């Protein structure tokens, strides 16, 4: 072989080697994200604040709807807190029942809750730090299941792998209490969240009483929709063994008018909001912008 | 007869075949399941249970375990006692087979008390804090304020507390029973008296005790029967051969049960003992004849002796086997699972045993060739002599007196049985007195609201019916009425729960609020009810979480019955079914643990009483067909029918109630007791047909069959007497009753049959 030929061969080998190295650095193997990072990403998503929505909650036994509620929900990010105001519109007998759920990273269980009951003494009760896992209106959804943000303090968040839900790729993140305070704040030994990254949305959750046992209840999102810049679930089903389930269906959604300020999101206002739930709040929302 | 001849000619083939099939049967025996739950006793879909099953489904009710803690004079509200309650509740929830969410105690029940405008539903004892004296006092105050010191969770005087837990339906009860007893035993180190009860525990312990009993009762029965029959026959081989034959029939029966996936039930675990004794009695006639023939003709070849003896008893034995099978099958007509299994497979076992009496038993005798001393045995000589003397005495005018005396006894016995015989039973009542569960049950019933519950479903017929103040208040009236009964320890219903929430929200003491409602000083509005119901439904583990169905249409009232048993459940049910029901919309539907136990006892006992009639009718029909004479038929059935009547009358006179186990005595007695009379009557008729005069025919029949009747009676009585050693009280009573009935039956047969023959003008 002539010298020029050898040089050409060497150049070819070097070129191929460099190209291969370049290709390796251009497409590194997909890194497994940390659980905490995934949850933080999810918590920082745009969920359309300030906003409002009207949802329909059905309690089901098998295929039979045993009870249904219409709920008005308003929320707004205030500093690092997310207060949610929930007003029960139907059934008539419970109209005026309302609660204020404040997602506060500094609070025990990262939540505060005030409840206003319209009958009898018509009191606004502060639900002191508990597990917030009482069923919302007797449904299988707990107050804590309806938070915008997932709790992270005191929880060990580990990625359990990938799966697909609703045709989307989801990361499975297991949350297990890692401190006595966190263990005291939840009755779940493990919750597996199914988080989609693009778009950032929760598509399911499995709630385990026993870390290794079958889930006690399962949340599955059956449909989603994009509203403005945010993605929202439009139908969610929480199922328990024995054919019991609760279904949340989104009926209306939209941005909260600027005229409804932060002053509404305080426990003292629960009575006022509740009394005028079907008038002042809803009328203003629907008359002005609507979804 | 063909089978008999074949078996005598080919004894090895018969024994080999029997051994092979017995081995195969053994493979299927492990498939038999032991069922301890009361619900398994009644078939699924039974009309009586349809409403009750539906109600259980609506309210998701499971069987309950109760643990009582006696805090003594210092009471339960002491830090160390509360710590025990807290830890025991936690560990109970972790026990395999217990539904963790179902554990209810002061440590788990949501706290409804308001502090200012603050509501913290977490129980004080479930906050990860160690209970101190201040917390103990606070808990006591709050418990009283919300009215939870009604004897269900804690007593009014704060002396004792209870923990309740539901058992997973799929769980193995015997294992749960052991686990809970072990758990409680660990906590006894803390120095407080702890008690365990509940039907689940009673069923588990009863199952275990019965199974343990069976393990030693069967060998003891075998030993006793071999001993008694060896004495009677003056040789052990006939007895051993008979036991072997019965054993093989039992293995075949159990093998078939296993193949069909049948279950044995806690109420009928004595089946093997009963079948061994019954099986041996049939052989007694054949073996008695064999011994007589072998002794009287010692030079005759064994095969011929066997053929003569077994041919002699064959006609009567076929009828007696049919009668026994009929008696047992009459139990199967009850349509309750234990009776069906007992009746059906008992009949099958008797069929096998009868088949082997003419195949395996002769084959064994031919193979073993027992050498019996020549000349009649002492027993035969004494028996024949006594029987001859008896017939002679009866022929001299005693027959009338015997009949009159029997009639004089039977008449009041019948009246007593019809008017005073009562049904009573309870799971706990079936346990040995020394059982931990019996002691626990007694103490929990003394200290707390009671261990037995009767659950009642009220259906308003309309959606949200119980959100209506009128209907809910009517429920309150029923609750108050029930609570006022001394039999009732406490009641729990949606009314009380709604009032509890309203009182808590109003910051008023529960009892004061309820009293104000009763006096009309307050009233409940529909929004208040709806609000309370919503709150209760929201709270996990609220004691009322399942007391109103999701449509608000049906409500669930639980009555805690002190020392609950059959009659108390019946009386409480009657009390609950009175006036307010029209306001509510329907009569209450009973369901749950207490109701199942009640219905089981009711169905079993009444079913067995009905099957007495069936068995007598069957015996009458059978003997009528065989003897083609109404007189002979009546004469055959009379002794056993009168004996059963006399036993029932005695029970009534002594105020001993009929229960699930002891009520079986009648069908067993009817099934095997009639054999005596059939043997005597059949032989008498054979003798008549041979042209012998009536008196001579009777005397000969009497002498030929009487000793066998006595042998059989001795075998049965000694066999069933072993049951009297059982540690399970109803099995003891069953054993004694069968012994009593069979002794009466043997005696009455030997008295009544000749008396009837002697008093009739024509032959029967």
What features would you describe in this structure?
The complex is a heterodimer of chains A (291) and B (764). Helices cover 20% and strands 41% of the residues of chain A. Chain A has 5 helices and 13 strands. Chain A has a 13-stranded antiparallel β-sheet, with helices on both faces. In chain A, β4 (98-103) and β5 (111-116) form a beta hairpin. By secondary structure, chain B is an alpha+beta fold. In chain B, 65% of the residues lie in helices and 7% in strands. In chain B, the strands form 4 sheets. In chain B, strands 9-10-8-11 form a 4-stranded antiparallel β-sheet. A 3-stranded antiparallel β-sheet of chain B has the order 5-2-6. In chain B, strands 1-7 form a two-stranded parallel ribbon. In chain B, a hairpin with a 2-residue loop joins β3 and β4. Chain B is elongated and about 105 Å long. The A-B interface holds A 59, 61, 66-67, 91, 93-94, 97, 115, 117-121, 123-131, 133-138, 180, 184, 187, 209, 242 and B 60, 100-101, 114-115, 117-122, 127-128, 467, 502, 505-507, 525-528, 530-531, 533-540, 549-552. β6 (124-127) of chain A pairs parallel with β4 (118-119) of chain B.
SSE topology sketch:
The complex is a heterodimer of chains A (291) and B (764).
Chain A: H1 3-26, H2 35-43, E1 51-61, E2 64-75, E3 82-90, E4 98-103, E5 111-116, E6 124-127, E7 155-165, E8 168-177, H3 180-185, E9 190-196, E10 201-208, E11 217-227, E12 230-240, E13 244-255, H4 270-275, H5 277-288
Antiparallel strand pairs in A: 1-2, 1-13, 2-3, 3-4, 4-5, 5-6, 7-8, 8-9, 9-10, 10-11, 11-12, 12-13
Chain B: H1 2-9, H2 11-28, E1 33-35, H3 47-59, E2 64-70, H4 79-93, E3 114-115, E4 118-119, H5 133-145, E5 160-166, H6 173-187, E6 194-197, H7 199-233, H8 236-259, E7 263-265, H9 271-296, H10 302-332, H11 337-357, H12 360-368, H13 378-420, H14 436-447, E8 452-459, H15 469-483, E9 488-492, H16 494-506, H17 510-519, H18 526-538, E10 554-561, H19 566-576, H20 581-584, E11 589-591, H21 592-627, H22 630-653, H23 665-689, H24 694-721, H25 729-759
Parallel strand pairs in B: 1-7
Antiparallel strand pairs in B: 2-5, 2-6, 3-4, 8-10, 8-11, 9-10
């Amino acid at each position: 072989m002539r010298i020029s030929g050898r040089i050409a061969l060497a150049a070819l080998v070097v070129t191929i080697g460099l190209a291969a190295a370049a290709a390796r650095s251009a497409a590194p193997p997909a890194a497994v994200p940390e659980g905490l990072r995934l949850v933080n990403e999810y918590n920082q998503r745009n969920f359309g604040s300030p906003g409002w929505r009207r949802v329909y909650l059905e309690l089901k036994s098998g295929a039979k709807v045993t009870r249904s509620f219409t709920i008005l929900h308003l929320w707004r990010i205030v500093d690092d807190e997310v207060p949610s105001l929930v007003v029960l519109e139907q059934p008539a007998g419970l109209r005026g029942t309302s609660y204020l759920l404040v997602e506060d990273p500094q609070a025990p269980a990262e939540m505060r809750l005030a409840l206003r009951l319209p009958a009898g003494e018509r009191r606004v009760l502060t639900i002191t730090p508990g597990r917030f896992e009482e069923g919302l209106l007797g449904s299988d959804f707990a107050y804590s299941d309806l938070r915008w943000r997932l709790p992270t303090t005191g929880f060990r968040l580990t990625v359990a792998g990938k799966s697909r839900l609703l045709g989307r790729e989801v990361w499975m993140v297991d949350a297990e209490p890692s401190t006595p305070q966190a263990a005291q704040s939840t009755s779940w030994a493990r919750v597996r969240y199914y988080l989609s990254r693009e778009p950032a949305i929760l598509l399911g959750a499995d709630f385990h009483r026993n870390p290794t046992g079958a889930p006690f209840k399962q949340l599955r999102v059956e449909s989603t929709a994009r509203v403005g810049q945010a993605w929202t679930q439009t139908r969610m089903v929480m199922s328990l063994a024995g054919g019991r389930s609760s279904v949340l269906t989104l009926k209306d959604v939209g941005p909260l008018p600027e005229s409804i300020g932060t002053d509404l999101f305080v426990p003292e206002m629960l009575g006022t909001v509740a009394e005028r739930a079907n008038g002042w709040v809803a009328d203003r929302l629907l008359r002005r912008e609507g979804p | 007869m063909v089978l008999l001849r074949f078996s005598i000619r080919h004894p090895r083939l018969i024994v080999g075949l029997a051994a092979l099939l017995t081995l195969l049967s053994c493979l299927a025996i492990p498939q038999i399941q032991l069922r301890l739950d009361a619900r398994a006793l009644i078939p699924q879909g039974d009309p009586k249970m349809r409403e009750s099953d539906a109600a259980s489904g609506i309210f998701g009710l499971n069987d309950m375990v109760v643990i009582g803690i006696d805090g003594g004079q210092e009471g339960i509200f002491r830090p160390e006692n509360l710590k025990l309650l807290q830890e025991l509740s936690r560990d109970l929830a972790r026990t395999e087979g217990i539904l963790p969410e179902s554990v209810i105690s002061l440590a788990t029940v949501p706290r409804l008390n308001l502090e200012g405008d603050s509501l913290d539903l977490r129980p004080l004892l479930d906050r990860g804090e160690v209970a101190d004296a201040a917390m103990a006092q606070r808990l006591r105050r709050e418990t009283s304020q919300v009215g939870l010191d009604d004897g269900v969770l804690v007593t009014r005087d704060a002396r004792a507390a209870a923990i309740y837990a539901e058992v997973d339906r799929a769980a193995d009860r015997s294992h749960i029973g052991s686990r809970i007893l072990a758990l409680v035993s660990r906590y006894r180190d803390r120095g407080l008296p702890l008690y365990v009860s509940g039907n689940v525990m009673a069923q588990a312990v009863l199952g275990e005790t019965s199974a343990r009993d069976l393990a030693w009762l069967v060998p003891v029965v075998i030993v006793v029967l071999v001993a008694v029959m060896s004495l009677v026959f003056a040789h052990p081989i006939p007895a051993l051969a008979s036991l072997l034959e019965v054993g093989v029939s039992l293995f075949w029966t159990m093998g078939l049960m296993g193949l069909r996936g049948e279950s044995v039930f806690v109420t009928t675990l004595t089946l093997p003992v009963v079948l061994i004794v019954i099986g041996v009695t049939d052989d007694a006639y054949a073996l008695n004849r064999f011994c007589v023939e072998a002794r009287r003709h010692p030079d005759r070849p064994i095969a011929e002796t066997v053929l003569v003896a077994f041919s002699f008893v064959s006609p009567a034995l076929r009828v007696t086997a049919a009668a026994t099978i009929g008696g047992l099958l009459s139990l199967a007509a009850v349509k309750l699972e234990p009776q069906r299994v007992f009746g059906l497979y008992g009949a099958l076992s008797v069929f096998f045993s009868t088949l082997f009496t003419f195949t395996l038993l002769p084959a064994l005798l031919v193979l073993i060739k027992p050498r019996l001393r020549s000349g009649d045995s002492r027993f035969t000589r004494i028996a024949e002599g006594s029987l001859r003397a008896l017939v002679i005495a009866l022929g001299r005018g005693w027959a009338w007196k015997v009949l009159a005396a029997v009639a004089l006894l039977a008449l009041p016995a019948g009246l007593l049985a019809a008017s005073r015989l009562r049904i009573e039973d309870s799971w706990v009542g079936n346990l040995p007195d020394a059982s931990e569960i019996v002691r626990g049950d007694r103490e929990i019933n003394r200290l707390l609201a009671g261990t037995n519950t009767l659950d009642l479903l009220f259906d308003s017929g309309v959606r949200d019916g119980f959100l209506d103040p009128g209907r809910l208040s009517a429920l309150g009236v029923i609750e108050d009425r029930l609570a006022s009964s001394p039999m009732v320890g406490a009641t729990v219903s949606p009314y009380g729960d709604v009032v509890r929430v309203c009182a808590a929200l109003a910051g008023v003491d529960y009892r004061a609020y309820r009293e104000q409602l009763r006096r009309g000083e307050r009233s409940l509005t529909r929004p208040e009810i709806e609000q309370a119901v919503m709150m209760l439904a929201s709270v996990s583990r609220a004691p009322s979480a399942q007391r109103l169905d999701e449509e608000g249409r049906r409500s669930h009232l639980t009555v805690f019955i002190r020392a609950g048993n059959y009659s108390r459940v019946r009386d409480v049910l009657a009390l609950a079914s009175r006036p307010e029901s029209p306001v509510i919309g329907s009569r209450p539907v009973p369901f749950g643990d207490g109701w199942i136990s009640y219905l089981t006892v009711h169905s079993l006992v009444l079913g067995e009483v009905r099957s007495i009639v069936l068995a007598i009718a069957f015996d009458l029909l059978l003997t009528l067909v065989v003897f083609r004479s109404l007189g002979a038929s009546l004469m055959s059935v009379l002794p056993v029918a009168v004996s059963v009547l006399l036993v029932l009358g005695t029970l009534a006179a002594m105020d001993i109630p009929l229960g699930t186990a002891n009520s079986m005595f009648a069908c067993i007695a009817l099934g095997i007791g009639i054999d005596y009379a059939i043997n005597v009557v059949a032989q008498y008729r054979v003798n008549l047909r041979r042209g012998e005069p009536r008196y001579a025919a009777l005397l000969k029949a009497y002498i030929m069959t009487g000793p066998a009747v006595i042998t059989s009676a001795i075998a049965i009585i000694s066999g069933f007497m072993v049951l009297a050693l059982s540690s399970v009280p109803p099995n003891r009573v069953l054993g004694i009753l069968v012994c009593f009935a069979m002794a009466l039956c043997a005696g009455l047969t030997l008295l009544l049959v000749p008396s009837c023959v002697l008093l009739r003008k024509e032959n029967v």
